[in-house]
Amino acid sequence: MDLNSKPLAGKKLLLLDGSRKAIEIIDEAHRLGLHVIVTDYNTPEQSPAKFAADEHFQVSTSDVAAVVELAQREGVSGILAGFSDRWLPTYAEICAEAGLPCYATVDQIKLFTDKKRYKELLHEFGVPTLRNYSVEEATSGDIPAAEFPLIIKPSDGSGSRGISIAQTQTDLEDSLAVARDYSWTQDIVIERFMPGEEATVYWVFQDGECHVCLMWNRHMHDFGPDLQYRLPVAYSSPSSLLPRYLEEVAPRVVEMMKSVEITNGIMFMQGLIHDGVFHTYDIGYRVTPTQEYRIVEQLCGYNPLAMLLHFAVTGSMGVPELGRLARPCHDGFGYNVSILVRPGTVGEYQGLDAVAQLPGVLSVGTSLSEGETLPEEGWGQLRQIAVRVIGVSDTVDGMRESMATIADLVDVKDTSGESMVIADTVPPGDLAERVL
């Protein structure tokens, strides 16, 4: 698949996501020549991606029959969901009803959007993960005090919504209530919290073959005991943990994926590093807004998001030499700088044009429009990331310098002219010194 041409020109893609983040999917689809239609139940003002699409409709993605009718009426060649786990099972049902390609079955998607079920699968195949406890153990007080702190999250959640850390039994009761508020199924995951370094592994699947495409360190900011959560402020690739992961963990993951007949698509696995071992705690069988696919394309010569789009409209992932190209131990270095902001109304972004001109910068994106408000309940959620800058460098020193320059240049002002950027969360500091 020639990513510099328009190999899919003339085909129509129906995207089931109108969020601002989905614009990056639309941009990639346009680069491939696709005609993009966006639908959800919101107005265009509520779903900014609709303005970036070629056409848009106000048909709810939860109405399977209505979306199927829309797809057939408009002559779409394929359908793709966006960034939310919530709509993935519905997406698979729509594809099945419409007779269009879907990279996974309904059962496979339900498995990998249910934290309890996939953790059981991880345990079965010896893939390191975090120790977990039942709600019954939590509410009865049977969890020993020595096992605290615990992290509590909705089984069907995403975007860090509904997640909190409990230091005591009293905190645990409050955390269970928060998680239930963000769960459609009222199913809760309780794990032992192991503070430490984090990483994310990205997989790409093609015709039943499983490939690690990238592993990078996930640099977290700890907001302290009063707020009790952490959010990413940067990512750097390749991770120093990669060789050990490829030798000890990846073969078990491959065995696990083959057991549930995973054939095509892309997947990310987030994890904590404990005693030098990557412990998976979150999985997404979908695209993620970290835009790692840009790094993979620049350093390895293929693009996982483009492959997913190709599959959506053709039924093929479209890269015949993936086995040769999938080189997670790539030459060069990739990074993502994520700028966190406090709640408030965005008045103006500053420095983005200058950042876009820096050598090696591949993408500069914002998640909040000017005039848009991040509410107080946004604390501790990934929507606090207002700016993402993706780039590459030939050397680790060059990467450090770029990350520091980006942090110096970018600012987000509120409507009163005050900076919304949480000052102590941005590189460089010690973060730029430990990017690997």
Automatic annotation (TrEMBL):
Protein's UniProt keywords contain Heme: no
Signal peptide residues on this chain, from the entry's feature table: none
InterPro entries in the record: ATP-dep_AA_Ligase, ATP-grasp, ATP_grasp_subdomain_1, PreATP-grasp_dom_sf
Domain (ATP-grasp) ranges: 119-313
A matching Pfam family: ATP-grasp_4
Keyword vocabulary terms for this entry: ATP-binding, Ligase, Nucleotide-binding
Gene3D superfamilies to which the protein is assigned, alphabetical: 3.40.50.20, ATP-grasp fold, A domain, ATP-grasp fold, B domain
GO molecular function: ATP binding; ligase activity; metal ion binding
Annotated PANTHER family: ATP-GRASP ENZYME FSQD (PTHR43585:SF2), FUMIPYRROLE BIOSYNTHESIS PROTEIN C (PTHR43585)
Listed name of the protein: Phosphoribosylglycinamide synthetase, ATP-grasp (A) domain protein
